Structure formats: structure tokens, C-alpha cells
């Protein structure tokens, strides 16, 4: 295939994606950035596979990008309802990957999907000791209604009460890296690993009327003079994703960040959990009685219905992305991660049927083999053969780490630098204070694995040559500092 022909086909893919995104109400500039990413991935797959980009796109590309209103709506029970004829024919069995929703306090919140299963019910809600026991037993999952707590006791820096629905959740989370003081961890797993005993203190801690609150980005640190509890208030920048305990530890030093003023009438708005609390576990707040006549929230626990109110979904069988009206700039990138994994696995399986493989084809296959092994599967066949339900945790880990890879902004080759920088800026705005996308699992090895997924075999060889050369020469090899600097610049380092 001639280079010009190849480029034309890649740009046709980009046009296709841009048009579909614009039809789904994605702003122009964003749509173009997303398209550039998809074009890169399709172009690389075609180049390594020795196929034409058009062929790759027809067999493995994203078929539809659906949007709320135009293509789908939600029915009364929150299920996806196809409206447009395209959606009707594509979503015959709408098995999708998406983030679940749950009740938290008196609101419905979009629980980040990497938190795992949602646990709730009368035995757990606002019974923190039962919550700790449950999460430690399951070693995964989340309880949206762990603590009764109102953050609107404080004003944000603009003088408005902080958002609150009367509840703070607890996530099992991850311990973090034991070699690096459990950095990257969050939730109960992190507290138990790094600050054993502190989780039990959270209950009485939150009832202390003299707590002080300090804000830093999306995170609030509460302090009683002896201990701190870190809360995530705007998970990924949104108030509708629930409020969660991220950490808790001993610290007698005042938190960094801006101290928040108390809201003047806080006491009037204190209560309103949606569930009755019988306070027998010694864990409930003394405020619940004030709330017994709150009829605004339904009895049923909506998190049982997983199709409700997610931001974006990916339908692997239909190879379709759905952007709900509340999608943010990370949503399409996350769904692109799901699509890309499926496309790479499918194409690699197809190539494995060939009698002999070129070096480029071997690269394509082995890069994605490494990815599914990292996800806990022995082979591409095992991964492809698993049901969506079985694959869900692995899928989410991949899509989250894909986000993290883009968030880090470190492009594997110079040509992708400006695109990666743009995505990194978006993520900064969305994830705020968090250095790691929750649920992602980045490390040097994983980064190298993603680098290999993002470049062709040819580019990888070039990059390795460049690296080897860089390794081979150092300052002593140059008589002049200037020459050494010029060499570094040439090698693209520093
Ligand atoms: Zn997902």
C-alpha cells in the first residue's frame, strides 16, 4: 500500500470519528483530539498488521457513537432505551461496560466503577463498624452510606456551602505500593496497611463538633488536632460522584491548604440520611432522628440496577460508545480504552491464524498478549472467551490505566507529544488533586507495556536505537559541553 493511500485512509477514519462525535454533541476541538487518538491507534494497528487502515476500521473500528436524547434515553427503571434506528439495530442486547450508580444519603451518585461491587442495605448503611467488617471480609467494593456526615457545615472559598447529601462512603480501595510507603493507595485497604487502627477512629472523629476543614483542590482534610481524615468531595471534578473517605492518619500538624469557614446555619441542615438508622451498633450519628419525615427519597436501593445513570458506556458486541448527557472530557477516552483493548485482542487473534508472522505482526500480537497477562489472563483466547461479566474488573483496570497513561502526558514518541499534553491538561482539570486515576495501576513496567501498545514495531525499533545510542554516549565522550548538549537535544532527551 502506498504511503499516500495509507494516510488518506487514516484521515478518512478521523473524519468518520469526528463527524460521529459532533453528531453526539461533542465540541469541535475535543472531537478532533479524540479522533487524532483513534487515528493513531488504527494507523498503528494497520501498519503492524500489514493491512489497510480502512480494513482495520471496518473490521474492528468503533461502529457508533450514541448520545442521550438523539439515540437513546433511559426508561423509568434506568435501562437504556434505543430511540434512533441505528441504536435500535446496534443495541439488540445492550450488554455494556459502564459505571454503576447508587444511593448515597438522599441523592443518587455515580459510583466510580473501579470501586468494585456496591454494598448497602439496612445492616450496613450508617453502621460504620459493620461497614469496616464487610469491606475487610470482601477485600473489594464500596459502601456508599458508611458515615452520616454533612460537609455543608463548611463554606467553600467562594462562601457557598460545600455540597452534601448527608453521607460519606467508604471504599475498600488499594493499599498502595508497600515499597514506597503505600503511595498510590486509598480507602480502607490503604488505611489498614499504612495507619492500622485509624479506620476505627473515623466514627467518633466525624462527630467531633470542633473539627476544622481545609481544602485542597477536590480534597478536604478534616482535622481534630490529633488526627486527619481526607475526603474526596468532587470525585473527578463532579459533585455527583459521591463523597468518600480516602485516608485517615495521625497528625498533629495543621493541614496544608485553605482553612474553610463554618456555615452560619449549619445546624438547621444537619440531618437527612435517606435510610432509617437504629443506632444499635454505636456507630450512628446522634442527628438521625431529625430526619425521620424525609419522604423525598424512594425506598428502593437503585444500585441494583446497573444501567442507571452512568456517564458513558461501551457495548463490546456492538462496538458502540454511548455518551450520556453528563459525560465529561475523560468519558470518551475511557471508552476508547475499552474499544482499543477489544480491537487489539480481536486483530491479534486473527493474525495468530497466519502460518508465519512478520516482525511487525509479532509485535502487535505480543504487545497485547502482555496486556491480557497483566490483566490476569493466560492467553488472548482465555480473555476473548470470558463473558463480559467475568471480564469486567480486568476491562475497567485496563480502561482506567489507559486514562492514567494519557493523563501522565508522557508520549512514547515525539509525534504524539502535543496530543498527550492536551489530554494531560484535561485530566488535570478533571481529577484535580489526585495524581493517580483511581483504579489505575501504573508502574514502569505497565508504562512500557502501554508504550508498546501505542507505537508500531518500526517506531519501537527506532526508539530503542535512539535509547541505546543515548545510553552509549555520555559527557566524557564529548570534548565540548556544547557538543554534548547538541547531542542530547538531537536524541530528544532533556
Ligand atoms: Zn469502563
Automatic annotation (TrEMBL):
Biased composition (Basic and acidic residues): 253-262
Domain of life: Bacteria
Annotated source species: Mesosutterella porci
Compositionally biased spans, kind Polar residues: 281-295
Record region (Disordered): 253-311
Name assigned to this protein: Uncharacterized protein
